[in-house]
């Protein structure tokens, strides 16, 4: 049974459940993967914790992991990139394997035919400050181009905030512009490295370059591990 | 914390989580309702159990309720109409209040301005055979018009099966035709009384008469009970 540590944000984890279902080869209910979603939107803001001295989210993350363990989960997926800043602490606290969203994103890039080289990386200010992607991908031949501080303040951070307030349509334009600027700077593809971003990007015209949806990437990684159900 | 007994089917319960989130007034993660979704698609088929002597789903339903209790749920929503055939047995087995999807559907009809009178009712063969809606709504002034046996076999049951196999686009045409036939017979609105049906109906042109989406209705009932979060 797949355990999903969600609620960060709740729309992204609901979308993860939807994509997990739609990407699973199935003809009837019983072919689908049993899953428990722990959707606790009260987890303290991950970016504020990392860059502004906000409340530590780790105790709330561990409460969710305990809940998933009690429910009988055998593997854990976390559809929130920034929460992976606490990945090692979470993995040390549980015997269940936790899928890593950056590895899932890399697999999703390769699935789309994107090979190591310069890629654009959009994410929360916390994800970028922690170098979550660079720390894992630099040694594998990828180079991450990131938005400037001005682009983060004007485009990416406001776009993520709009999705968390349910305004996916309003989020499209700033998020799409930030992605375009990374391509103009030499990126071969853009990683939507915050699970709110694909929701905004899906709300408007398809972008004319490869984008890596980290919700879909994590869903595919979970299906590869858990399907077919026992 | 809202407990969601889902997986019946998994796409419907993922959509329930999405609609629960989108219909909640929220400006940030922490304004959303904490929820645990128990999505176990292995629950034996409810319609087969009721009309064809299939395996009893009650033990699996009660396992889910125990899981939600253990996770700390304080109220339960079940985004599967047919499972409400076991409502009394489930409610007798837990101290947590279970929202009833038929009451939620009635509230959704009234919200849309539909007053008691003749309505169309689409659902699984199990839901219709158990008279889940009629048993609760007849005494309140509603009269349920249902598809003929031929329409069930040709349109409604195949449409539901297509959604469970992830083919929502293919499900639109048979489900929309069944709804139109109920309106032609005098229904003022059509209740989509199986949580797979709104997924198929949403995959094509909007129908030119009121439809009651039981996923949205149940989401609104859950929000009324659980928002704002404690």
From TrEMBL, chains A, B:
Keyword Secreted tagged: no
Alphabetized UniProt keyword annotations: Isomerase
Superkingdom of the organism of origin: Bacteria
Membrane-spanning segments: none
Record SUPFAM superfamilies: Aspartate/glutamate racemase
InterPro entries linked: Asp/Glu/hydantoin_racemase, Asp/Glu_race, Asp_race
One example GO MF annotation: amino-acid racemase activity
NCBIfam families for the chain: asp_race
Similarity field: Belongs to the aspartate/glutamate racemases family.
The protein's name: Aspartate racemase
Organism whose genome encodes this protein: Falsiroseomonas stagni DSM 19981
């Amino acid at each position: 049974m797949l355990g999903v540590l969600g609620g960060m944000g709740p729309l992204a984890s609901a979308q993860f459940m939807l994509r997990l279902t739609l990407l699973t080869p199935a003809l009837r209910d019983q072919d689908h993967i049993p899953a428990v979603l722990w959707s606790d939107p009260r987890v303290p803001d991950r970016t504020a914790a990392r860059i502004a001295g906000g409340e530590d989210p780790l105790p709330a993350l561990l409460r969710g992991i305990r809940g998933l363990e009690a429910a009988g989960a055998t593997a854990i997926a976390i559809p929130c990139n920034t929460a992976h800043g606490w990945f090692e602490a979470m993995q040390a606290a549980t015997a269940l394997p936790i899928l890593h969203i950056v590895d899932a994103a890399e697999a999703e890039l390769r699935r789309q035919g994107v090979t190591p080289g310069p890629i654009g990386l959009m994410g929360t200010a916390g994800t970028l400050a922690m170098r979550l992607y660079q720390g894992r991908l630099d040694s594998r031949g990828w180079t991450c181009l990131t938005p400037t501080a001005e682009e983060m303040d004007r485009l990416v951070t406001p776009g993520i905030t709009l999705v968390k307030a349910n305004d996916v349509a309003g989020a499209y334009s700033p998020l799409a512009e930030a992605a375009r600027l990374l391509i103009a700077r030499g990126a071969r593809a853009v990683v939507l490295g915050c699970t709110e971003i694909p929701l905004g990007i899906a709300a408007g015209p398809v972008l004319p370059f490869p984008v890596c949806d980290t919700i879909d990437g994590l869903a595919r990684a979970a299906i590869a591990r858990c399907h077919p159900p026992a």
